[in-house]
Design goal:
Layout (H helix, E strand, L loop, with lengths): L1 E6 L3 H15 L3 E5 L10 H5 L4 E5 L7 E5 L4 E5 L11 E6 L2 E7 L9 H23 L3 E6 L24 H11 L3 E3 H5 L8 E2 L11 E2 L2 E6 L6 E6 L15 E5 L2
Parallel strand pairs: 1-2, 7-8
Antiparallel strand pairs: 1-14, 2-4, 3-4, 5-6, 6-7, 8-12, 9-12, 10-11, 13-14
The protein binds one DNA strand through loops.
Protein name: Exodeoxyribonuclease III
Family: Belongs to the DNA repair enzymes AP/ExoA family.
Keywords: Hydrolase, Magnesium, Manganese, Metal-binding
DNA sequence: ATGGTTGCCCCGCAA
C-alpha cells in the first residue's frame, strides 16, 4: 500500500501532472498541499475518473489541502482542533484502518517575522492535538509539507541552511522533534540514512538542475505502523516535467 | 543569496 504527500503548488495548474503521476505511480492514498482552489472548484470528478475519492479544504490563492484515496475517506476533520485559523492547512480522514493527517505547515517567511511566530505556534498546536489523535488512532500516518528540513542530511548546503535560516532554524527543528516525540517516525529515515535526497527545489537559480534542494515533505508513521514500512522514497520524476511544482512527491509503502 | 522564479490576482504578495 503506497501513501504519498505532494505539494502541487496550484492544482488548477497541476491537475494534468497529478493525473499523469497517479496513473504512473498508482498510490493508494495521497495528501496534497497548496491546492489554491476553493472547494466548489476542486476537480473531484476528474479524479474519480481515475479511481480516487477526494476530500478537500481549500481557499482562493493560498494554502488548500486534500486527501485522495482509492477507498472512501471517512470521519473527515478539517483544520487543527484548538487552533482556529482562516488558513486551510490541515485535513484528516480515515482510510481503511489508517488515520491520515495531511498538513501544510506554515512557511514562516523569515526568522523573527509574525509568520515565523505563527509557524511555531501552529506546530505546537498540531503537536498537542496529535498527542490525542495518536491515542484515538494507533495506526496513524501524518504526512505533508512540513516546511522544516529535519537535519543536516536533508539540505544541500548546511552552511547556508543553518540554525539562523528559515526551514532549518533551531526552534523549527525543535518543534518538529516535539511533534515526532508524540510517537511518530519519519518513514524515509526508518529505511535510509543517506543525505542529499530532497523533495523541494527553489524555482530560482536552476536549483533543481543543480540539485540544490531540501527534504521538507515527510511521511510520518506511528509506532504501530513502524514494522510495516517496507519502502520509502521521493519521486523526482514529476519535477522534471514541463511547468512543474517546486515539490516532488514523498512516499512510503506499507506492507499490508 | 544581496539574487532569482512561479502562481495568484489585481501588479504586490507568498513561497
Amino acid at each position: 500500500m503506497k501513501i504519498a504527500s505532494w505539494n502541487v503548488n496550484s492544482l488548477n495548474v497541476r491537475l494534468p501532472h497529478l493525473e499523469q503521476w497517479l496513473r504512473a505511480f498508482g498510490p493508494d492514498v495521497v495528501g496534497l498541499q497548496e491546492t489554491k482552489l476553493e472547494d466548489h472548484r476542486f476537480p473531484d470528478a476528474a479524479l474519480a475518473g481515475l479511481g480516487y475519492r477526494s476530500v478537500f479544504s481549500g481557499q482562493k490563492t493560498y494554502n488548500g489541502v486534500a486527501i485522495l484515496a482509492r477507498e472512501e475517506p471517512r470521519d473527515v476533520l478539517v483544520g487543527v482542533p484548538g487552533f482556529e485559523h482562516e488558513h486551510r492547512r490541515a485535513i484528516s480522514a480515515t482510510v481503511g484502518d489508517l488515520r491520515i493527517v495531511n498538513l501544510y505547515v506554515v512557511n514562516g517567511q523569515d526568522i523573527g517575522t509574525e509568520k515565523y511566530e505563527l509557524k511555531l505556534q501552529w506546530l505546537a498546536a498540531v503537536r498537542d492535538w496529535l498527542e490525542e489523535e495518536a491515542r484515538r488512532h494507533p495506526s496513524l500516518v501524518v504526512l505533508g509539507d512540513f516546511n522544516v528540513a529535519p537535519d543536516e542530511r536533508d539540505v544541500h548546503d548546511p552552511a547556508v541552511w543553518n540554525d539562523q535560516h528559515i526551514l532549518t532554524s533551531a526552534p523549527e527543528r525543535a518543534a518538529l522533534r516535539d511533534l515526532l516525540a508524540t510517537g511518530l517516525h519519519d518513514g524515509y529515515r526508518l529505511l535510509h540514512g543517506d543525505g542529499g535526497v530532497f523533495s523541494w527545489w527553489d524555482y530560482r537559480q536552476a536549483a533543481f538542475r543543480r540539485d540544490l534542494g531540501l527534504r521538507i515533505d515527510l511521511t510520518l508513521v506511528s509506532e504501530a505502523l513502524r514494522p510495516q514500512v517496507a519502502a520509502a522514497g521521493i519521486d523526482r520524476e514529476p519535477r522534471t516535467w514541463e511547468r512543474p511544482s517546486d515539490h516532488a512527491p514523498a512516499w512510503i509503502e506499507l506492507a499490508r
